[in-house]
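Quick question, first post here. What does this chain look like in 3D?
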Amino acid sequence: MNEDFFILMGVLLAAVLLATPVATLVLTLRQRRLSARVAKLEEALEAALAGPRPAPAEAPRAEPLPQPERPPADMIEAVGPWARAGRAAASPSPEAPDPRETALSEPGLSGPASGDLPPPDRARPEGPGRIAALSLWLRSNWAFTLSAVSLALAGIFFVQYGIEQGLLPPALRVAAAIGFGGALVAAGEWIRRRGGDGEEAPALLLPSTFSAAGLVSIYGGIVAGRLLYGLYGPELTLVGLVATTLGAVLLGWRHGPFLAAMGLVGAGAAPFLVAGGQGATAALYPYYILVAFLGLAVDAFRLWRWVSVLALVIGTGGAFLMYLGGAGQGGWALTLGALVLLAVVVPGRAPVPEHAAPAPTERLTAVLLARGADAGPRLSVPVRLALGMAAAASFALWYTVEGFWSFGTLAVLAVGLVVLSLRAPGIGDLALLPAAAFLLRLWTDLWMASQFTGLALGSRPPETSPPATVTALLALAAAMSVAFAGRACGSVRRPLALGAVLTAPVAAALLEFRWAPGLVLGSLPWALHVMAVAALMTWFAVRWSRLEDRRPMAWAILSALASVSLALFLLLDAAALTLALAVLVVAAAWLDRRLRLVEMGWFLQAGVAAISYRLVVDPGLVWARFAPALPMLAAFAGAIAAVVGARRLLPPERRLERAVAESAAAAWAALLVNVLLTRRFPLIDPIESVNTHWFLTLQALPWLVVAGAQLWRIGAGGRIDLLRRIVAAGAFALALMPLGLAVTTANPLGAGLRGEILGLPILDTLLLAYALPGVLFLLGARHLPGLGRLRGALTALGGAFLLLWAVLEIRRLWHGPRIDAPGVLQGELYSYTVALLAGGAVLLWQAVRLRSELLRRLAMAVLALTVAKVFLWDAAGLSGLVRVLSFFCLGLVLAGMAWLNTIVRRAMAGDQGRS
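> Answer (accepted):
Ran it through. Tokens below.
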């Protein structure tokens, strides 16, 4: 006990030592103030004793100046201590003080110590940024900050000391902490009345320091009485916290931002300092909502801006720490919703928000379109606060909350923001943030999806109804779509209309591909859910059909068509679904013709892509080969007829869409030919999966026709020509693959039994496999436009195929249908020589006819190759008169060719000289 007595005496002595300089400072300031007032009174008395001064000439009466209108909240300058510190750093030279500011800093006045209307010529203070100003202010006033922290800790540690030593009953400990806080607040108010408050007041920031510490002590005492001792229930705790918060609002209004900031920080930290290791509790969620309301309420009238941000950060951070401590996700989700409500309502100082435009999406669109130029008005401060809190809450509800607490809170938050924005165009599109988080949660909530899929029809007990999880989720998405559609007007019509037509259909698509509801509900019930979404989109389209802006109606029609497509996908088989998509493509073209909606062209292109995917991949070419003939023909023929009809229905100005339909018809026709050939001529060797030379060429010919048709239509310019070139390049690549196999692995020279040649000599499969592609390449190189530098390569490719055909055909004449036998016959060699001579002669004749130097040189190259073959290869197998006759004939032919070549060269040189 003696030890405690000495400790108490030491504490009292330290308090006296600390209080003495403070009291001395206060008395000194008071003495200076009294001296200043006495000096003023003396001057007034001397002026009175000196007698009356001559009255000046009456000046003309001036008209009263009009009172300036109060600017909106977002244009009022923040002139708190941090802004003053920034102006002091930016303006080193002293200037005369503003009379309004001097008057407000006089002791005894109850007006605000800071917060002023800005000069009319500027809306923002000049000087460094807020971070630099905060740093400068903390360097100048760090002592006041530490003083407030120390005093606040004194009250909290007093409660802890009483617990450890057992000096006072619990009720007295709490009362002592609250009384200590009240004494500090009273001391701060007493100093403010006599010495003012603020950096320019005689008492500086002492009143804010004492009052902030007192508020923290009161908060700590109330929380300790509930969490540590259980002296009262949650109702009385809430009443005490509300009363303290209201008092803090009044004190913050009178003292300035320093008190507000210290009070907020202390109130946020009080539960952790008092409770110690007692753990988190859900009862503190309302407490942090009140803390956030405190800062927002003060800043709503004083317009310091940063105080609102600090209040939201402390309220959200404290509640999040409670959630991490195990206070429950339900309270955390409700707290996030309440904080968003406070961020929207309180800064506007009205129960019905009236945030001015622009909205965030409107501002973003203006910035993107401006491209560096002036993008118009910026977002107001209340809109920025609401946007930041809505984004933070949406992210937290998506990432930290699970199950229906996440989905339900996000949906309610979206609908609530729509209702709050009915008279506030500046926040009209904030509801899109929780809606986007809702859709993202549908895709990422794998645990909930797996639990739902585990209740499939074959997994749950018989005669049990399926869970209503998916129905509830789709209903929440539909409710958000209805809310967006009802609010889609004014400057946010298009963003909200887009949200209305996307939320429910995208939710249905995500549920289908992630949750597999058809396995649990059945295909027909789930398809009816999707059709209900399509009906909702149709109602939106009808509702928006009376608007002058036809874009929302077009979006609703697209969404309805997409929903119908999804429902058909759930119900129909392969061929029926392809036909249904084809019908939707025709419907989109018809709507575009009637309403001139560019979005219908987008849907047509998407429908063509979807049909192409079904014809090629799923169910694809494998299904087309083995399916019954009638469904296969119906799918392909119906799709081709649909795009042909869509091309005829499309308006003339839809050139790109018409080109897409035309290209799709050509490509699908080529696919159909390939499928028919595959069904008619099965694989020779299914094990090795290698086709014959003629079958591979048959597979390539349709794609060559498609490529040629696309290049033939080039000439419209722009994106249409680019699309045709892309389609032509793809078709040509698809043709080269089987042609390459026909030349290499399926070549009759080494293909064995698969290389057997069918048909009569000349009119055989070699003509089909090699001569026909070569002729097509040469014709394309001569007549197709837009080839450029590829024309020569295509000509060489055609010549190579014709040369290969000639060689293989000659060998076939000597060896029969099987030309893979080893060795070369003597007559076969002569045939090759004659063919080369004939080819050289033909080339030389064409050079004369076309006056082509290139063909002339090519003809001479062929003749040189012929001579090399005769001397190096044929001569080794000749003897006697045969050798004599062969070389005699070769010499005559070469002499004639050389003479003709000279005549041609001279004639071409003469033509060039005359030109």
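Confidence is low (pLDDT under 50) at residues 1-22, 55-128, 140-144, 683-690.
DSSP finds 33 helices and no strands in the chain.
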